[in-house]
Amino acid sequence: MSGESDLIAEALRLSPVERVARLAAHMKRHYFPELAGEKIHEILSRADEPFWLEYQPRRFDREYLQGWVLQGLISWEASARKLPKTPAEATAEIASAEIDATLTWIAAADQLARSRGVKFLVALIPVGTVDPDFVAYWQPWPRYYAFTLLADARHKAMAAAMARTTIPFVDLTADLQGIKGTYRKTDMHWTEAGHEVVAARLAEEIDKLRR
Questions:
Q1: pLDDT per residue as tens, the chain (211 positions)
Q2: What pLDDT digit, counting tens, does each position of 156-198 carry?
Q3: 121 within 8 A of 209, measured Cβ to Cβ
Q4: Contact (CB, 8 A) for 90 and 147
Q5: Do 122 and 167 meet the contact criterion of CB atoms below 8 Å apart?
Q6: Distance between CA atoms of 125 and 133, rounded to whole angstroms?
Q7: Within the chain, what is the greatest distance between any pair of CA atoms?
Q8: Strand pairing partners for 190?
Q9: Distance separating the N- and C-terminal Cα atoms of the chain
Q10: 22-39 burial, b if ≥16 CB within 10 A, otherwise e?
Q11: Are 184 and 193 in contact (CB under 8 A)?
């Protein structure tokens, strides 16, 4: 949306009360005209000051609050859909057919690589559940965090399925588990610290392939 980034950046410079009011009004007008303004305001009001400080300028790993982040947050929190609250509930929602379908094209890629004499390795990337900072950041919004729980459940199901095959793979969960500051808060991509952890592990695995 034209001008949205500037509006959000300006709102971040306001006082906490004014900031939430400005952002809530924007989301109501442009994204959720049918949703009660009080509901939008309540959802955004759960953010404490450390939440907003994450978007202050810094030299490395700068985070930018964008409209799609707020839209997703409000959409999930206001949804009437039944969502998992625990890892166990998320696991129960994973369809084995979805995992099997994904595994078929991975297996096909492995077979193609082998037929060409190319070494093949799959790296399974965990979601932000492994980063304590990421988990704490989104705790005020359990319904929004359900998306991450579901993604984590899919990851674990995929790792279990891969383990039942002969396809070479590495699950990066153990490498990243419990290390703070390895995931960006908004898009769940790795920070520079996260990249360093993963690069070290993948370099080790690639070296093994070359032997």
A1: 889 999 999 999 999 999 999 999 999 999 999 999 999 999 999 999 999 999 999 888 999 999 999 999 999 999 999 999 999 999 999 999 999 999 999 999 999 999 999 999 999 999 999 999 999 999 999 999 999 999 999 999 999 999 999 999 999 999 999 999 999 999 999 999 999 999 999 999 999 988 8
A2: 999 999 999 999 999 999 999 999 999 999 999 999 999 999 9
A3: yes
A4: no
A5: yes
A6: 18
A7: 62
A8: 183
A9: 51
A10: bbbebbbeebbeeeeeee
A11: no
Q: What is the full DSSP assignment across the chain?
A: -TTHHHHHHHHHTS-HHHHHHHHHHHHHHHT-TTS-HHHHHHHHHT--HHHHHTTS--SSS-----HHHHHHHHHHHH--S----SHHHHHHT--HHHHHHHHHHHHHHHHHHHHTT----EEEPP-GGG-HHHHHHTTT-HHHHHHHHHHHHHHHHHHHHHHTSS--EEETHHHHTT-TT-B-TTT--B-HHHHHHHHHHHHHHHHHHH-
Packing angle, helices 4-12 and 16-30, rounded to 10 = 160
